[in-house]
Amino acid sequence: MVKNCPVLKEKLATNEKQSSKSFSANEKAVEFYSKGLDELKTEKFAKAIDYFEKAVKEDPEFAFAWDNLGLSYRKINNYDKALESYKKSLEIDPKGTMPLQNIAIVYQYKQEYQNAINAYEKLAEIDKNNPEIYYGIGNIYATKLLDYKKGLENMCKAYLMYIEQKSPFRTDAEKIISNIYAEMKKQGKEEEFNEILKSYNISQTK
Fold first, then answer.
1. Would you say the pTM of this structure is higher than 0.85?
2. Cα torsion through 18, 99, 167, 17, rounded to 10
3. Pairwise CA distance, residues 120 & 44, whole Å
4. Interior CA angle at 106 toward 56 and 81, to 5°?
5. Per-residue pLDDT tens for 93-114?
6. Residue 136 CB-density burial (10 A; 0-12 exposed, 13-18 middle, 19+ buried)
7. What's the angle, vertex CA 127, arms to CA 121 and CA 97, rounded to 5?
8. Which residue among 71, 107, 197, 199 is least crowded, i.e. fewest CB within 10 A of its CB?
9. What gap in Å lies between CA 183 and CA 187, rounded to an integer?
10. How far apart are the first and last CA of the chain?
11. CB under 8 Å to 120, separation ≥6 — which residues?
12. Could you give the dihedral angle defined by the CA atoms of residues 47, 49, 53 and 55, in that order, rounded to the nearest 10 degrees?
């Protein structure tokens, strides 16, 4: 079985694309939010949660505050509260990319893999050129559901996007593709593996 943890490579920056409801015009909410970010940076998650909770109490439509509240809860392994916060953010801004990506990650921690895939697929509807989507889906199929064909197909998509974007994360995709090859070879499916790579114009990764 492939040993890669599907959540080791996360991109959880808070500077996602802004919408009209991403930020807040409420000065007190912004002040609490700013203090929460300071606590988050120093990994004082309980304090960060307190400030973000105050921010969303001041302005319940403050999407970025909900996002970071979710991130803070996830950091202390309170996955249900994290999901609740991310889903609240999506109610405010249905096209928020950060909460959708983080929802997928939280579901992986909860070992609810189909829910994680569903979250990635929703993210693909609004951010189809994000290689992390296909990396995440491919990793789940390959390492958790052991569906190597679907894992390989998605990892090939991620690999090609990483190359196009000149991203160093291409090596992560290469490693998983190599591991999938080893597993499919054990199953006598080496020819199927090669056909899938050929369909994506990818040479076999060693």
1. no
2. 0
3. 29
4. 35
5. 988 899 999 999 999 999 999 9
6. buried
7. 85
8. 199
9. 7
10. 17
11. 100, 101, 104, 133, 136, 137
12. 70
